[in-house]
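Today's session is about reading a structure prediction critically. Students often jump straight to the picture, but the first step is always the sequence itself: look for stretches that repeat, for charged clusters, for runs of hydrophobic residues. Only then move on to the predicted structure, which in these notes is written as discrete structure tokens rather than atom positions. Here is the chain we will use throughout the hour.
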Amino acid sequence: MEVDYSKKAKKKMCPDWKCLRSFGNIVGKKIIQRVKEFKAANCLEDLRNAPGRHEELKGDKKNQLSCHLSANWRLIYQPIESYNFLENGGLNWKTVNKVEIIEAIDYHKK
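Below is the predicted structure for this chain, in token form.
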């Protein structure tokens, strides 16, 4: 699968040393690992049952997905280019072969 980055994510995550500097060793290494998993997959469906619990988001983050980096941290990403939806409105994971990393966030930090 191809991986791209939002402008905000690119500043913090590319190259790998920036990712480690921005997020620390534990979360930074997980981000790097997840990106490698994206690149190794043929489509998003290949990651559905992979470690990190990939899941579709709702509300104001509809059409975005997340995967776990740690207990608190999530990597937020979205499909880009050609993909489609199932009859129930969910994303057809088999049609996603390019994603954009949006950000890594601590869901529990207020």
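Discussion point for the tutorial: Helices lie at 7-13, 16-40.
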